[in-house]
Amino acid sequence: MQSLIEAQKKLLPDLLDVMQKRYRILQYIRLMQPIGRRVLSNSLGISERVLRSEVQFLKEQNLLIMSSAGMSVTSEGNELLHILEDVMREVLGLKDLEKKLKHTLHIEDVIVVAGDSDLSPWVKKEMGRACVACMKERLTDKNIVAVTGGTTLAAVAEMMTPDSKQSDVLFVPARGGLGEDVKNQANTICAKMAEKTMGNYRLLHVPDHLSNEAYQSLIEEPTVKEVLQLIKSSSMVIHGIGDAITMAERRKTPEEDMEKIKARYAVAEAFGYYFNQEGEVVHKVKTVGIQLEDLEHVQHVIAVAGGASKAKAIKAYMKQAPHSILITDEGAARALIRE
Amino acid sequence: MQSLIEAQKKLLPDLLDVMQKRYRILQYIRLMQPIGRRVLSNSLGISERVLRSEVQFLKEQNLLIMSSAGMSVTSEGNELLHILEDVMREVLGLKDLEKKLKHTLHIEDVIVVAGDSDLSPWVKKEMGRACVACMKERLTDKNIVAVTGGTTLAAVAEMMTPDSKQSDVLFVPARGGLGEDVKNQANTICAKMAEKTMGNYRLLHVPDHLSNEAYQSLIEEPTVKEVLQLIKSSSMVIHGIGDAITMAERRKTPEEDMEKIKARYAVAEAFGYYFNQEGEVVHKVKTVGIQLEDLEHVQHVIAVAGGASKAKAIKAYMKQAPHSILITDEGAARALIRE
DNA sequence: TATACATGGACCTAAAATGTCCCGCTATGA
DNA sequence: TCATAGCGGGACATTTTAGGTCCATGTATA
């Protein structure tokens, strides 16, 4: 199979381009369906006319259907996308990127999806899809999955689908309030994931800034305590990685912490922890839930982050998480390798 | 892999056609290099202009070079052809034919090459190439290879190349004179093979029609006797299969034998043996060398024959040679399966 | 040295791809 | 209920490409 594609690259590179184009179109339609020509052509950067021809073709192949609401992928089209997924990764050179990333970042497993989420927001969804596939591969019988917040994780949640095998999954937020926007909060995402997978969830209601005493009494509450217990025993953690300054600014970080973060050259953020270039923790938001050292005992840790702008953060964070699975995009991957 | 190709076909219905076209062009060039556009386009049945475009493309891909003498395949092109060989067999459905042939002929191993040697003479060369590859796979340390005559075997000889591993091969003619044309005689072919592989050879000089007494004294000759000894101990036999009547006519078969061959409904010929539809010997040319019953003790027996017109003969011969390896072409294979 | 065969340039035509503009339909939300 | 944004699709001019045809020029070889 490898050799077939290699050979095809030599013998018909022109056709592979066409294949790639059609694949992208179909893939994007799946992501955004139902969608119309105009929006689609804009998003893909293809002139509307050529898109129209391609779409016409794909329709004749029964890969998509058109309705007054827009175009959607048929089940046949879905199947095709699935079969070709691996091939296209090869064709697009993503496999190659993965190999290089494993080497430069010294990590064991990485998945790179096409595109750059800085440039095209839908790439986040593709990372989401990849993450979901990755999760499904690894989820066994009964599982507790802890998730963090962030726009990337929101994309993951959006792409979640019920697992055909069994849906005995319990979602919990990994850590208490970190000061995010509501729709990007761990709690929200946690609930959404459970809803999409028809699984269960528990939430952790911990106000952002609390006095120490209030804290202590809160975590003694039975309901809170139970959730904390679940979190500690989770078998999978899914989290995003952010740029330190951006994250600090987005959250209502107190002035003094902000100073600290900047003074210590934090570049990456994850779980409410801030890391410098070397992957060392320079600051942490005080809240309950999973702590960095707990990760070691979690079976599967999946980090999801993409976009060239996050390359530095990813690099820093990954320095201290060699056993995490990284799901990223082409933009970040290329930036990482360039360095 | 099949599903991959199916999927590609959905997205790019003419992918395989183009791939096949380019492959054929490259393959043919390798066969005939150096070769010019006119001859090439004629042989392949492609208009000269489209051939020109394709060739231009292949040149840009560094798969072939053009010189004033004509076009030749580069080493990169050769490599590609090699990689693609297996893939194309699959794509062209040859693997499928092989499977069916194994079943209908009850034989263990068969290789089918594309084309029909009745229609395009160069297909014989492809069979030759396949036969050579097959031989190389099976030849071990020191070997004695016995070969027969015929145009097909001549093609095999032509495609022979020195073996990189070792060339400690001794070629001998399988049987004495059978009345063939000089350039298709076993002796000639035997010598040619040795020359091409940089191996050694021994010849067997036995006049065609000899009195019994002369025969007896001849085979007592030390030089003849030695060669006969070698023949009997050969580890590989390569032979063609012919249509009985055609072969009988080509050789200066005496009137009475001719009658016999026809009266007994001979359809196949190999080694100077004539077989009827059931694979029973109905006549044999009297000469020295390997006898049919000796084949059982030979490690590798390879039969090479192609062209739809030979289907009947192949079928008949194979009935009594289930352990032979058959190398044939698409034309013969399809005819065989049709029956 | 003539000949045959090689490539490569030039130009024309047919056909396919693409750009442009517009129309009628329908789902949606005020 | 109705306005409207967004949908697919028709029509046609224009550009680009593929392919047909012919010929010039160079170079081995008999």
UniProtKB/TrEMBL annotation, chains A, B:
By its UniProt entry, which Gene3D superfamilies does this protein fall under?
3.40.50.1360, Winged helix-like DNA-binding domain superfamily/Winged helix DNA-binding domain
Which InterPro entries does the annotation name?
Answer: CggR_N, NagB/RpiA_transferase-like, SorC_transcr_regulators, Sugar-bd_dom_put, WH-like_DNA-bd_sf, WH_DNA-bd_sf
- The superkingdom listed in its UniProt entry is Bacteria
SUPFAM superfamilies per the UniProt record, alphabetical: NagB/RpiA/CoA transferase-like, Winged helix' DNA-binding domain
Keyword tags: DNA-binding, Transcription, Transcription regulation
Keyword Lyase carried by entry: no
**A GO molecular function for this record?**
carbohydrate binding
Q: Tell me where in this chain the Sugar-binding domain is found.
A: 91-337
The CggR N-terminal DNA binding domain covers 18-88
Q: Which family does it belong to?
A: Belongs to the SorC transcriptional regulatory family.
Task: Supply the PANTHER family for this chain.
Answer: CENTRAL GLYCOLYTIC GENES REGULATOR, TRANSCRIPTIONAL REGULATOR-RELATED
Q: What is this protein called?
A: Central glycolytic genes regulator
Q: Which organism is it from?
A: Thermaerobacillus caldiproteolyticus
What lineage, starting at the top, does this entry show?
Bacteria, Bacillati, Bacillota, Bacilli, Bacillales
